[in-house]
Amino acid sequence: MKPTLRDYLTIIASLAVIFACGYGIGHRMGAAKGGDSARPAAKPGVSWQDSAAERLVSALQLDDSQLGAVRQELDASSARIEAIRGESRQAYLRELLDLHDRIAPSLNESQLERLEKSRKSLQLLSE
To answer: For residue 110, with 0-12 CB atoms within 10 Å meaning exposed, 13-18 middle and 19 or more buried, which class applies?
Structure first.
């Protein structure tokens, strides 16, 4: 049986209702999670310290002297965060290399060759 105009209109109406429900639920979920105060996406070329300072100034209404103190703390935190990031990256790469060691006995020759290529690239990254 060939679909009629009424069938197409029913499908379009159903899709519109589904879209409206999804939009409404998304809007309610965003409001429940504080969608208006959610962290905006980072701007390209702007450091996280500048973004954080901008958010803090707007959220806390900091004056210039307070902003100076906050910036000092952000800079100190930045150094610690970079050190932690480097350590965690190295730990991540070590764990991947260990994973390669653990799965190697289960692989055949061609898979081992591919694994070895992957392993070499990981070793280059970890140096």
So the answer is: exposed
Coil vs helix vs strand at 4: coil
Count, in order, helices (H) and strands (E) of the chain: 4, 0
For residues 32 and 25, give the distance between their C-alpha atoms in angstroms, rounded to a whole number. 10
Six token digits for residue 42: 């980072």
pLDDT (0 to 100) of residue 22: 84
pLDDT of residue 109: 92
Contacts of 26 (CB under 8 A, 6+ apart): none
Which residues make Cβ contacts (< 8 Å) with residue 51, sequence separation at least 6? 42, 43
What is the value of pTM for the model shown? 0.49
**CB-count burial class (<10 Å; 0-12, 13-18, 19+) for 50:** middle
User: Going by C-beta distance under 8 Å and a sequence separation of 6 or more, which residues neighbour residue 100?
Assistant: 115, 118, 119, 122
Q: Are 93 and 125 in contact (CB under 8 A)?
A: yes
Structure tokens at 116: 């070895």
